[in-house]
Amino acid sequence: xxxxxxxxxxxxxxxxxxxxxxxxxxxxxxxxxxxxxxxxxxxxxxxxxxxxxxxxxxxxxxxxxxxxxxxxxxxxxxxxxxxxxxxxxxxxxxxxxxxxxxxxxxxxxxxxxxxxxxxxxxxxxxxxxxxxxxxxxxxxxxxxxxxxxxxxxxxxxxxxxxxxxxxxxxxxxxxxxxxxxxxxxxxxxxxxxxxxxxxxxxxxxxxxxxxxxxxxxxxxxxxxxxxxxxxxxxxxxxxxxxxxxxxxxxxxxxxxxxxxxxxxxxxxxxxxxxxxxxxxx
Length: 281
Description:
- With 281 residues, this protein is mostly helical.
- 58% of the residues lie in helices and 5% in strands.
- The chain contains 11 helices and 4 strands, in the order H-H-H-H-H-H-H-H-E-E-H-H-H-E-E.
- The strands form 2 sheets. A two-stranded antiparallel sheet has the order 1-2.
- The two termini are 18 Å apart.
């Protein structure tokens, strides 16, 4: 997971223009449009034509690979609340990660869900109609991991930190895995996979702080620096970022610094010196 996370960071650094700006805004607008039409369409023909269906996709209706993510996961007035909440956490993640990483996050969730649906179809023959609910759940878990102290108003009245809502959702999450029959209970696991892929490092750091395993130790920086320099004499570069892997050969104008809070002697580019997971051992 750590290796994949670094590859993602490197891709985001090298392709800053990749991705869709304000992606969550377009997703919510699509949800609102389908929600409005579904209220007027008592036969649900529109929703049926947009739902994920492996059998229909194999017959040529490839738009279902994407359109299922625009079908609202809630109905009635609750849908309006969820639309706002999705936009809030999605736009916040995009501002924090950048459009490249958030776009990868959202569409990787769609990809994992699609793969799951086809695997179930080929194994059981069931034309499973998966929704985007677990994609949004992984997005919510990511937000709660990065901003655990954010306070929201539950039912617009009760102030509650986002991390407690995440704990409640995690409990329901585990309950569905336990009570749902195999292999249909694997869909929540797919959501967790997408979450861990992008937020596993932050989760490890957060748990490390709570358990006390993240406390800095005194190290001999002179000795560590000599060891690093000896290793770098055999490398085709002088400095390399521990997060994204960029080197002074890739970008001669990039500034590199060493983090005093990491255990050891670890180098970071200017982009990640203040935004990385500290080495604890």
